[in-house]
Design brief:
The chain is α+β, with helices and mostly antiparallel strands. It is about 35% helix and about 30% strand. The protein has an 8-stranded antiparallel sheet with strand order 2-3-4-5-12-7-10-13. A 5-stranded mixed sheet has the order 1-6-11-8-9, with no helix packed on it. Strand 4 (about 30-40) and strand 5 (about 45-55) form a beta hairpin.
C-alpha cells in the first residue's frame, strides 16, 4: 500500500487558465492523476470538478481556500474521500450529496491509493447566498464564528443527479454557459428546499395551522394524478391561500407549487427508470409533461433508459 504522501498547502501546483475560462490545478504526475477544474458562474458562485486518483495514499493539507464564509454543495460521483479538521471530520462518497458551511477552515483532505474520486462542488459565497435566500436565512445557515458545519448529508436525489450530469456535460462547453448557470441554480434550489429552516415558525401559525399545512403536504404526495391548484389545496385543509403559502415557506422553505413539481418529477423519473408509463403524475397533455420534465432535468423523458444510473 505504501506510506502516505503528505502534500503541504504551500507546495506548488501546476495552475493553468484555459481558453474557456476554467482554471485547472494539477498535482505533480508522480502522485498520480490528480486535478481539479473550477469555473466562476457569477460573482459569489463557483463550480468545481475534482478528479483524483493518487498512486499512493494522499493527505493534502488544506488551508483557508476562501476569503469569507461559504456554503458548499458536494455531489459524490465516484469513490470516497474525507476531510479532517479541528471541528470534526466530513466524509464524501459516491451517490451522496453533502452540504457544508465554513470560513477559513484548515484541515486535511485524505484519499486512498489507486482509487478514483470524482466530485462536483457548488461553492456559494455569503453575498450570493444572501441574494438568493435573504440575509436572515443566509446568516442562519452559515452560523457564527466560521466553524465547519455539516448542514446535510444523504443519498443524492434523482433531481440532484440529473442536474449534476448536466453540469458535467456543459462545463467544458463555452456556448452552454446559460444552461450551466440554470442547472447550478436549480440544484441549489432543490438542496436548499431540503434544509429545514432553523428560525422559529411565525407566531401567526398556530399548532392547528401547522397540522393543516402538514396535511396539505401529504395531500400533494397522495394526489399527484390530479390537476391540483393552491385554491383547492387550501380549501381541502381549511386554510386561506395566504396562510397556506406562508406556512409552506416557514415549514418547508418552498412553495406548494414548487413542492408539487418536485414530487411529480421525482415520481416521473422513478417510473421512467422502471420502464413504466408516466400517466399518473398530473399532466393532461404529454407535451406539457415533456416540456416540464426537460426544464426540470435538462433532457427529454425519452432519453431516460430503463434501469440506468444517472451519474
Amino acid at each position: 500500500m505504501g506510506k502516505a504522501c503528505r502534500l503541504k498547502s504551500g507546495q506548488s501546483r501546476a495552475v493553468q487558465v484555459l481558453a474557456d475560462g476554467r482554471q485547472r490545478v494539477q498535482l505533480d504526475g508522480g502522485l498520480g492523476h490528480c486535478y481539479c477544474e473550477s469555473l466562476q458562474l457569477e460573482q459569489g458562485l463557483g463550480l468545481v470538478r475534482l478528479h483524483y486518483q493518487p498512486s499512493r495514499p494522499l493527505i493534502e493539507e488544506s488551508s483557508a481556500a476562501h476569503d469569507g464564509h461559504v456554503l458548499v454543495v458536494t455531489l459524490g460521483l465516484q469513490g470516497r474521500s474525507a476531510f479532517r479538521g479541528r471541528d470534526g471530520d466530513v466524509g464524501f462518497q459516491a451517490g451522496q450529496t453533502t452540504i457544508t458551511a465554513f470560513r477559513g477552515v484548515a484541515g486535511e483532505r485524505c484519499y486512498a491509493a489507486n482509487q478514483g474520486v470524482v466530485q462536483l462542488r457548488l461553492v456559494v459565497e455569503r453575498s450570493a447566498l444572501g441574494k438568493y435566500l435573504g440575509e436572515e436565512r443566509a446568516a442562519d445557515l452559515l452560523g457564527d464564528g466560521g466553524r465547519l458545519k455539516q448542514l446535510g448529508c444523504g443519498s443524492s436525489s434523482s433531481a440532484a443527479k440529473a442536474h449534476g450530469a448536466a453540469l458535467l456535460r456543459h462545463m467544458r462547453n463555452p456556448a452552454a454557459r446559460l444552461d450551466l448557470h440554470i442547472h447550478a441554480l436549480s440544484l441549489l434550489s432543490a438542496e436548499f428546499a431540503g434544509l429545514a429552516p432553523r428560525h422559529p415558525v411565525s407566531s401567526r401559525l398556530s399548532a392547528a395551522d401547522m397540522e393543516r399545512i402538514e396535511r396539505a403536504r401529504a395531500l400533494l404526495g397522495e394526489q399527484l394524478h390530479r390537476p391540483l391548484t393552491v385554491a383547492w389545496l387550501a380549501a381541502a385543509v381549511g386554510l386561506n391561500e395566504h396562510k397556506l403559502k406562508m406556512g409552506f415557506r416557514h415549514l418547508f422553505d418552498t412553495t406548494p407549487a414548487r413542492l408539487l413539481l418536485d414530487l411529480r418529477m421525482r415520481q416521473a423519473m422513478t417510473l421512467l427508470e422502471a420502464g413504466q408509463q408516466v400517466a399518473q403524475v398530473g399532466y393532461e397533455y404529454p407535451n406539457n409533461f415533456s416540456v416540464a420534465f426537460a426544464r426540470y432535468f435538462g433532457r427529454l423523458p425519452g432519453a431516460i433508459k430503463t434501469g440506468s444510473a444517472q451519474l
